[in-house]
């Protein structure tokens, strides 16, 4: 995945890989997500809760039927009406769903057994998978005796043991505590890099998506709002949701030369020169706050704002501001104390033009 | 202030309007069993219990109750699965019909079975003329009567367990290539085994004590259809001491079952 030459565009010629349009209608909710990936690609579906990510995954697995207009092809094979047990698809569920009455080994052997492999052979294969995951000594353990990270690896081994052409991971790290997460994320990254077919993972954690995937599809309210490489999406967010996830202030307006005029009248001066509909983004750390109107500042952007709220963010304080321009600003605890910041206080916010990033809508 | 808070025993805190009826209730349940023990003709017991009829009736009871339980499991567990897992129109009505034998007086059940499976019954006449099979007043008839009354206990118990079990395990199994039946057999069934065991014990106990449906559908022929409850009832007319002795045997069997399963139930939950 570190290989930058690896294909990351969703255009896939007919044949190898995944080519789908996931349409699922359920009452008032409609999911409509085109999805394409080449073998070896890791695609992350990122989005807020209720966006339809898990529904998309279930549709890929065949656990939810596609509605009219939906289609699903994998390696050139039509899978629209194929029942889940006949799809070459492996799933790692969010809470793993390891069968509690079976040992780790028998959990992994379950898939091969169901697909016609003899008992001894299936268990031998399962043992190899567990060894690959570094879990040989836990082969006989029941799932309730495994730690979260171990259970996750057993679930991954179980899904891979059927040699799927499409691997689905539903919030693969959500059930783990912060410390285990770091290890498991790194391991998962290695296993996904080794995986030769298409992998699709669902997450609401941008970090997981950025680390694990080479193509990001952002879903909001059942629709794709943005896709691209993780780096591109992070630098050029197109919705508040992504901007908030990656910690950026994001505005939409019309660019003319070095300025972007927002719909509500505020003007942002930018380093780039653009014309037409555009986004402007800058990180909260680019904002400098002053109690009085600054006179000697070289910053090209100056807004009068009011403090709406404050919260600690690591060793810094993030202030939410309203006024001429709603924005988030990061400052040190010392600075916050010196400025005597409190909710309702009036402040002046400055941002250098060079700290902003403008791009076409 | 009355008793200091927190230091009281359980009864110290129980208000009288609850405590008195509770103790009456306890006595109501225990006293008859104690009376049975007090009036037992202990000295003549060996003589009363060595008769072959007693052992015949006990053997028949155990065999029929076990057979009825097995029948209930074979057809009742799939029925419970259908009710818990498959959406179909009229499911509520079907569930009501399944539970009806729970509240139906067993004698009515026996009459209904005669109408269905009797020699001139709706189904029974064909069984008789095509296959020469006669069910009423046979040992098989006893098993059918007991299963009719006992199966709803098993179905209700298993359905409840199935509803509490996470259906996503079945989904996980299908994504691994298991057909729906394989998923049921290899994943669901082991997961709900404690519920099936509990339901089977309830059904078995109910079958063991079955009286009304049995005597109506299968009659009261010693050695063939006379189970322990029928034997007790018959003995009570002629030989009350024998009836007490037989009752004690049934009580002992019940206690043995309860004691035997207590540990299993505790660890299963």
From TrEMBL, chain A:
Tell me yes or no: is Iron-sulfur among this UniProt entry's keywords. no
Report what the protein is called.
ABC transporter ATP-binding protein
* Alphabetical keyword list: ATP-binding, Cell membrane, Ion transport, Iron, Iron transport, Membrane, Molybdenum, Nucleotide-binding, Transport
Q: Name one GO molecular function term.
A: ATP binding
> Which PANTHER family does the UniProt entry name for this protein?
SPERMIDINE/PUTRESCINE IMPORT ATP-BINDING PROTEIN POTA, SPERMIDINE_PUTRESCINE IMPORT ATP-BINDING PROTEIN POTA
Q: Which residues form the ABC transporter domain?
A: 15-246
The cross-references to InterPro entries, in alphabetical order and at most eight, read: AAA+_ATPase (IPR003593), ABC_SmlMolc_Importer (IPR050093), ABC_transporter-like_ATP-bd (IPR003439), ABC_transporter-like_CS (IPR017871), ABC_transpr_FbpC (IPR015853), Mo/tungstate-bd_C_term_dom (IPR008995), Mop_domain (IPR004606), P-loop_NTPase (IPR027417)
Which residue numbers delimit the Mop domain?
296-360
Which species? Streptomyces edwardsiae
Automatic annotation (TrEMBL), chain B:
Q: Where are the transmembrane segments?
A: 12-38, 58-84, 96-118, 130-158, 187-205, 242-261
User: Keywords assigned by UniProt?
Assistant: Cell membrane, Membrane, Molybdenum, Transmembrane, Transmembrane helix, Transport
Question: What's the short name of a Pfam family annotated to this entry?
Answer: BPD_transp_1
Per UniProt, residues of the ABC transmembrane type-1 domain are: 58-259
Q: Which domain of life is it from?
A: Bacteria
List where in the cell it is found: Cell membrane
Instruction: Note the topology in the membrane.
Output: Multi-pass membrane protein
Query: Sorted alphabetically, which InterPro entries does this protein's record hold?
Result: MetI-like (IPR000515), MetI-like_sf (IPR035906), ModB_ABC (IPR011867), NifC_ABC_porter (IPR006469)
PROSITE patterns noted in UniProt: ABC_TM1
User: Quick one: where is this thing mainly located?
Assistant: membrane
Q: Which NCBIfam families is this protein grouped with? A: Mo_ABC_porter, modB_ABC
Similarity comment: family membership = Belongs to the binding-protein-dependent transport system permease family. CysTW subfamily.
Main role?
Answer: Part of the binding-protein-dependent transport system for molybdenum; probably responsible for the translocation of the substrate across the membrane.
Task: State what protein this is by name.
Answer: Molybdenum transport system permease
Q: Which gene encodes it?
A: modB
């Amino acid at each position: 995945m570190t290989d930058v030459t690896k294909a990351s565009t969703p255009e896939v010629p007919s044949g190898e890989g995944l080519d789908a349009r996931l349409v699922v209608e359920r009452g008032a909710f409609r999911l409509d997500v085109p999805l394409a990936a080449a073998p070896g690609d890791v695609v992350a579906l990122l989005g807020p809760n209720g966006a339809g990510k898990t529904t998309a995954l279930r549709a890929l697995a065949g656990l939810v039927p596609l509605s009219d207009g939906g289609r699903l092809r994998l390696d050139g094979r039509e899978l629209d009406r194929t029942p889940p047990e006949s799809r070459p698809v492996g799933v790692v569920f969010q809470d793993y769903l390891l069968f509690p009455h079976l040992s780790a080994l028998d959990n992994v052997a379950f898939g091969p057994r169901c697909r016609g492999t003899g008992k001894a052979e299936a268990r031998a294969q399962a043992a190899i998978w567990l060894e690959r995951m570094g879990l040989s000594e836990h082969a006989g353990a029941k799932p309730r005796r495994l730690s979260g990270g171990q259970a996750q690896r057993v679930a991954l081994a179980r899904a891979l043991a059927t040699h799927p052409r499409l691997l689905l991971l539903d919030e693969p790290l959500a059930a783990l505590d912060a410390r285990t997460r770091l290890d498991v994320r790194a391991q998962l990254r290695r296993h996904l890099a080794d995986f030769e077919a298409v992998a699709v993972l669902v997450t609401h954690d941008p970090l997981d998506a950025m680390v694990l995937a080479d193509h990001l599809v952002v879903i909001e309210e059942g629709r794709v709002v943005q896709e691209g490489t993780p780096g591109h999406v992070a630098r050029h967010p197109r919705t508040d949701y992504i901007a908030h996830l990656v910690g950026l202030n994001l505005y939409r307006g019309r660019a003319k030369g070095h300025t972007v005029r927002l719909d509500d009248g505020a003007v942002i001066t930018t380093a780039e020169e653009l014309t037409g509909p555009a986004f402007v983004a800058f990180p909260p750390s680019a904002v400098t706050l002053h109690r009085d109107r600054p006179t000697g500042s070289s910053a090209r952007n100056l807004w009068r704002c009011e403090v709406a709220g404050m919260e600690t963010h690591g060793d810094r304080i993030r202030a939410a501001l309203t006024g001429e321009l709603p924005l988030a600003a990061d400052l040190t605890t010392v600075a916050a104390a010196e400025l005597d910041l409190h909710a309702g206080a009036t402040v002046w916010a400055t941002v250098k033009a060079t700290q902003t990033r403008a791009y076409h809508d | 202030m009355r008793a200091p808070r927190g230091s009281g025993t359980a009864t110290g805190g129980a208000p009288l309007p609850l405590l008195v009826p509770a103790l009456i209730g306890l006595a109501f349940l225990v006293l008859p069993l104690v009376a049975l023990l007090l009036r037992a003709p202990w000295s003549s017991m060996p003589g009363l219990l060595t008769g072959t009829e007693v052992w015949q009736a006990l053997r028949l009871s155990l065999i029929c109750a076990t057979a009825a339980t097995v029948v209930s499991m074979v057809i009742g567990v799939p029925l419970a699965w259908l009710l818990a897992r498959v959406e179909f129109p009229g499911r509520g009505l079907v569930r009501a019909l399944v539970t009806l034998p729970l509240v139906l007086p067993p004698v009515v059940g026996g009459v209904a079975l005669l109408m269905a499976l009797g020699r001139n019954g709706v189904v029974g006449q064909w069984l008789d003329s095509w296959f020469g099979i006669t069910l009423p007043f046979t040992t098989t008839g006893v098993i059918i009567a007991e299963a009719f009354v006992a199966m709803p206990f098993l179905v209700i118990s298993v359905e409840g367990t199935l509803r509490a079990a996470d259906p996503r395990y079945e989904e996980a199994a299908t994504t691994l290539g298991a057909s729906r039946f394989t998923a049921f057999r290899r994943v669901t069934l082991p997961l709900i085994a404690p519920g099936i065991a509990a339901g089977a014990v309830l059904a078995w106990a109910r079958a063991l004590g079955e009286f009304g449906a049995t005597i109506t559908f299968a009659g009261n022929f010693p050695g063939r259809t006379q189970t322990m409850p029928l034997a007790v009832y018959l003995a009570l007319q002629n030989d009350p001491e024998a009836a007490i002795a037989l009752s004690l045997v049934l009580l002992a069997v019940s206690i043995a079952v309860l004691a035997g399963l207590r540990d299993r139930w505790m660890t299963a939950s």
